[in-house]
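Reading is simple: each integer encodes one residue's backbone shape. An example follows:

___
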Amino acid sequence: MTLFDFEVKDINGKTFDWETVKGKKILIVNTASECGYTFHYGPLEDLYLDYKDKGFTVLGFPCNDFGGQEPGTETEIAQFCSKNFDVTFPLMSKVTILGKDAHPLYQWLKAQTNTEVAWNFQKYLVDENGQVVKMISHNVDPQDPEIIQWIEQ
């Protein structure tokens, strides 16, 4: 299996077209608008803008599983991200990450890295072929040198 085998919906409820990101390195991140790490939207957007034309993208997956910190609707989330952080990287529909109802994509990400999602803004690095490379903790800045080096190699 690869990342591209999973069906996900974008923030507008439409099936996301994996063809738009195949062949790119991808940073997948679970997001929340009312979290102490919400400021990560800024560095994530900067990272996206710096590297989107160099074979990289960010995919944000809003999630309300951690402290109820993403209570809004998809429309509210999109408006918040646009208004407060000028987010232009692709956002997906809200997903469940914890428990038996976890989205299959997140079940796969966790299985591939033998990790659990600890909090909002945990990051997964996925290579150009849709294979998971590594999990990066929620408290690591999106522009950490390890992430930058991975993108640039």
